[in-house]
Design a protein that fits this description.
heterodimer, A: alpha+beta, 4 domains, 6-stranded mixed beta barrel, 23 strands, 17% strand, B: alpha/beta, Rossmann fold, 6-stranded mixed β-sheet, 7 helices, 10 strands, globular
Chain lengths: 830, 222
């Protein structure tokens, strides 16, 4: 009864407070905080799902199953029952014939719904512009890769033979999901309709055929089906989910999620600080109300029952508005950035909205509850003695609850308490170091005191008088600007610095799949055309199966098991001498050219714990091969020379089918030789590294833009803190301003002082950002990328200027009320 | 109605213990009007705070409406105050975020009175502020603010009204009008009035006067 009465009164009081404008800043902080978090959440969600979709597109499915025999029909029925789209494909190797010419090809026979995810792209003729294909090849026709046409000297419209069947070439196949990254495929692709398989008569008992099943559908349905299927799989079935489909993409998604999530947490923490400041102010402003209520007979419990619901209603209301704001913000930014996303992002889901509201409640509870609960301890005597106030909330309660809230939210992104504590400790250490630097900067600026005019001195004074707040703000803005500068450097400077530092004649093409028989002819081709090529290295496909007698699946962790080096077959090579850009770090090279030994690349060895003299087991062409580790090699991968994880001595692998690999440099004028090379050696696959780099640049651009987008919100949260700090000092500033004006200061002088104060704050934050950027970039360039470092001068100019302009203006506008009121009104109110 | 025996309040200062009040004994009967008079620092407001249960004495006992305040905790004292005690302060103590009528409604709402708005409006009309219902305190003159505070004090028809220098922040003409109103309402509603003032003229309107000096009653205790 009393509770309900209190609830009603609480809501009425809330409405009155709201109308009187008491709550607006506090709510604004909360709205922007939740808005920032949700915008980030929505955007992350869309990007992550977009990326997951992209990897699904690369796989051509959400879930793929590969089997040497057809799977039981009920497996497919179950997929249908779960609401999944499925498609079946048969893959086999066959020689495609036209007239006198032959080409070994990889034939894929597909049915309806292929591919369930992603698209096929085809062109009407060789080198004609390609477009997304409509459906699959009609029965009686084939879509073939350009290499097939080259090899057969055929054109679209010609008839080709596969086994006993004759098919018409209808389109040139230019893109197929699941094939994009596979440069090592020996045989070019021929796509036909499933209905034509029987006609070819290629598939006989004992033929090597792979059955591929691709499934797509809603996330939960796919997960459910995957669980169902897992219990039924045999040894020879291979199940690949979109997330595992490409191990490196999956890891990239996880890292982006974690990194962007933790970045967005920076916004939450800043917002939390703003909320804590707002809550303190709110609490102080309600001491009188609380004292009056107590005086009128309200118990402590009544006070709690009056304020807690207000807080909750405020949190919910502001969170909902924040969610709407976040949604609108990410829609706007998404619209503005639509050209940046080649891929259409999926619509925002509901989860980020819920997380936004939860974040609002957790943040409010963590940062605002302690000071607001102090209201119940306001002594009623305050109505007689103004100075009677409750003891401030204990530091343990204030900082403890804030830290608990931050850790809870952080855990959401790290899903690990160790990592959470680690990140927190690292962040605290970094913040402490930067805070010391910020304090140093403030102290240096203090020395300039005597050399500036009155207005500036007034502004500087304000900064030192509130030194703690100033350092906090310099730190907040400095960190944000630093993060933005580092990201901008990574996007604009890092790749080009690396490219500039490569020697001019660094190979820019790789040639794979050179048949052993073609090796002398390829060498002659390079010589005749004056192409600078590296040596031709033999390459045998094999899988690492055991390390020191233990199967690798048992010796490595789950995450490492998805490593490409284990998942896929490795390229094994042999050499009599140490390749030019390799250096031995342990062990010795073979001189006698014999014995079952192997040289392992350093990073791979470290990753899998491969020691010198350990016995490694490989599976090559179905046979077991054992070799002892003779040496560990350091490889300079960015030399763009052919390099290998595993090198054997000559004489060990010659019995297995090998192809050859090399890299070479083509100047822009020599580009036309590529066509000649491909025509002369149809089986050869050529990879242009500039194209790969362009792709890397695009991906890097997208990821860094996403992070910058998040940082914009962190910056916005920084401004909320600035305004909250302003609000906390506004009464002082009113008083001070009024006094100064009664003493003869003009409005202009006061305004100049405010501008000086905040521009200096921004300038110092920018300087801090420049120092931090230089340190981070130096570490990044020299340690992570082995690049020569040059001082990033533009950052020293742009960061302080941007900081001074942004924060100067924000502070200037935030304080404009101070001089608007007449000094008389201000002094009377006080 | 109110009784205090051997009441003392001692605070610790940098120079040692300081007795703000000592050995105060007094008895106030229902319906009585009592002025507590003294110069600044004589302990008048401290005594008022102790009698109203807003603070606890270091010595002695206070009884209010048959309850021994000194034996209750803060929430217990709040329960005794609820509905039984009204206050008028020198600094008005209106909540700046609430309008005049909302300030008057606050105690009614807290007590769960049925038509708090109607009652508050009637009271404000009674104190002559029918035109000022929705004004915020900052838009009211000092006299008007104190009239709102008086309306708030009488809202729950309290048995006892404590007034702490009610005219201290007002000019003499305004103060006189506010005091007239206070005594009118006091008579109308037969409230026990305890009034703290340093103004002899104001004190003379009360039936009984208690003089405080240096924290002790110098005459008039009853």
């Amino acid at each position: 009864m009393r509770l309900i009465r209190n609830l009603k009164l609480a809501l009425r009081l809330l409405a009155r407070d709201w109308r009187a404008g008491e709550l607006k800043l506090f709510v604004a902080a909360l709205v922007i905080a939740v808005g920032a978090v949700t915008a980030v959440g929505f955007f992350n969600d869309r990007m992550l799902r977009g990326m997951a979709y992209q990897s699904a597109e690369m796989l051509g499915a959400d879930l793929a199953l590969v089997s040497p025999q057809p799977v039981p029909p009920e497996w497919l029925d179950e997929a249908l029952k779960q609401g999944l789209t499925s498609s079946e494909a048969l893959e086999f190797a066959s020689v495609v014939v036209k007239g006198e010419r032959l080409q070994l090809s990889s034939v894929r026979a597909v049915g309806a719904h292929y591919p369930p995810r992603g698209v096929l792209r085809t062109a009407a003729a060789l080198y004609a512009p390609d477009a997304v294909a409509d459906g699959i090849p009609a029965p009686g026709t084939a879509w073939v890769e350009a290499r097939v046409l080259h090899a057969l000297a055929a054109a679209v419209g010609d008839r080709i033979e596969i086994g006993s069947a004759e098919l018409a070439v209808a389109r040139v196949l230019t893109y197929e999901p699941g094939r994009g990254g596979n440069f090592f495929a020996l045989a070019p692709r021929v796509l036909i309709h499933r209905a034509d398989v029987a006609r070819t008569e290629v598939i006989q008992p004992g033929s090597r055929v792979t059955y591929g099943y691709a499934f797509a559908g809603a996330d939960e349905a796919v997960a459910r089906y995957q669980r169902w299927l897992k219990t039924r799989l045999g040894q020879n079935h291979q199940l690949v989910g979109a997330r595992e489909g490409n191990a490196s993409v999956a890891r990239a998604i996880e890292r982006v999620d974690r990194f962007v999530g933790l970045t967005s947490l920076l916004a939450v923490i800043l917002a939390g600080v703003a909320i804590a400041m707002g809550a303190r102010r709110y609490s102080h402003r309600h001491y009188d109300m609380s004292a009056m209520l107590r005086c009128l007979g309200a118990s402590q419990r009544d006070i709690v029952q009056l304020y807690l619901p207000q807080l909750l209603a405020l949190a919910l209301g502001a969170s909902l508005v924040g969610v709407a704001l976040g949604w609108a913000a990410q829609e706007t930014i998404h619209y503005l950035m639509r050209d940046f996303f080649p891929l259409k992002l999926p619509a925002p889901g509901a989860a980020p909205a819920l997380f936004g509201v939860a974040t609002g409640l957790i943040t409010l509870a963590g940062f605002a509850l302690a000071p607001i609960l102090r209201l119940k301890a306001v002594p009623p005597l305050r109505v007689l003695r103004r100075e009677a106030a409750p003891l401030p909330a204990s530091s343990l309660a204030v900082y403890g609850s804030a830290a608990a809230a931050v850790m809870l939210l952080m855990w959401r992104y790290t899903a690990s308490w160790t990592l959470t504590l680690g990140v927190l400790a690292g962040a605290l250490a970094a913040a402490a170091a930067l805070a010391a630097a910020a304090f140093g900067l403030l102290a240096v600026s203090k020395r300039l005191h005597r050399r500036v005019g009155t207005a500036w001195r007034f502004g500087f004074n304000n900064l030192w008088r509130r030194a703690h707040a100033s350092v906090g703000q310099i730190l907040a803005f400095g960190l944000t600007l630093m993060a933005m500068a580092v990201i901008a450097l990574v996007r604009t400077d890092l790749l080009s610095t690396w490219q500039r530092q490569l020697p001019a004649d660094t190979p820019n093409h790789f040639a794979f799949n050179i048949l052993a028989a073609d090796v002398p002819a390829v060498r002659r081709f390079f010589e005749a055309n004056r192409i600078e090529a590296q040596a031709l290295y033999p390459m045998v496909r094999g899988r690492l199966t055991t390390i020191a007698g233990v199967p690798v699946t048992q010796t490595v962790t789950k995450e490492e098991r998805s490593d490409e080096a284990l998942q896929r077959e490795l390229n094994l090579s042999w050499a009599a001498h140490v390749p030019p850009d390799n250096t031995l770090v342990r062990g010795g090279w073979w001189t006698d050219g014999g014995g079952a030994r192997v040289s392992v690349e350093e990073k791979l060895a470290k990753k899998f714990g491969i020691e010198l003299d350990a016995e490694l087991g490989f599976s090559i062409g179905g046979e077991e091969v054992k070799a002892r580790v003779a040496s560990i090699r350091k490889v300079q991968w960015d030399s763009f020379h052919p390099n290998f994880y595993m090198i054997f001595p000559p004489g060990m692998l010659e019995a297995y089918p090998a192809t050859y690999l090399t890299s070479f440099y083509l100047s822009p004028e020599q580009k036309s030789l590529l066509t000649a090379l491909v025509r002369a050696f149809p089986a050869v696959t050529v990879l242009e590294t500039d194209q790969v780099l362009a792709q890397a640049r695009t991906i890097l651009g997208q990821v860094t833009f996403a992070v910058e987008f998040v940082l914009l919100f962190v910056l916005a949260a920084g401004f909320v803190v600035l305004y909250a700090a302003l609000a906390a000092t506004l009464d002082d500033r009113f008083h001070e301003g009024a006094l100064l004006r009664t003493l003869g200061a003009s409005r202009r002088q006061l305004r100049a002082g405010h501008l000086a104060e905040f521009a200096t704050l921004g300038l110092l934050a920018g300087l801090l950002a420049a120092i931090g950027t230089e340190l981070v970039a130096y570490t990044l360039y020299t340690r992570a990328f082995d690049l020569e470092y040059t001082v990033k001068w533009p950052v020293w100019l742009i960061a302080p200027l941007a900081g001074a302009a942004l924060i100067g203006l924000a502070g200037y506008f935030g304080t404009r009320r101070v001089v608007r009121l007449s000094p008389m009104a201000v002094l009377r109110e006080l | 109605m109110i009784s205090a025996t051997n009441l003392g309040k001692r605070v610790l200062t940098a120079e040692g213990a300081l007795d703000i009040l000592a050995g105060v004994n007094l008895e106030i009967k229902t319906g009585e009007s009592v002025a507590i008079i003294g110069v600044s620092g004589s302990g008048k407001s401290t005594l008022l705070g102790l009698l109203a249960g807003l603070d606890l004495p270091t010595d002695g006992e206070v009884w209010l409406s048959g309850e021994r305040l000194t034996a209750l905790d803060e929430d217990g004292r709040a329960r005794v105050r609820a509905g039984a005690v009204g206050f008028v302060f020198q600094s008005f103590q209106l909540l700046p975020g609430l309008t005049a009528i909302e300030n008057v409604m606050l105690p009614l709402e807290l007590a769960g009175a049925p038509d708090s708005e109607g009652a508050a409006r009637a009271l404000l009309e009674r104190v002559g502020l029918a035109e000022r219902l929705t004004h915020y305190p900052r838009a009211l003159s000092g006299g008007e603010q104190q009239r709102v505070a008086i309306a708030r004090a009488f809202a729950l028809r309290p048995a006892i009204l404590f007034a702490d220098e009610p005219t201290g922040n007002l000019d003499s003409a305004t103060g006189a009008r506010v005091i007239d109103l206070l005594f009118e309402l006091n008579t109308e509603r037969r409230t026990t009035l305890v009034l703290v003032t340093h103004d002899d003229e104001l004190a003379s309107r009360c039936a009984r006067r208690i003089y405080l000096h240096g924290g002790r009653i110098v005459n008039g205790a009853g």
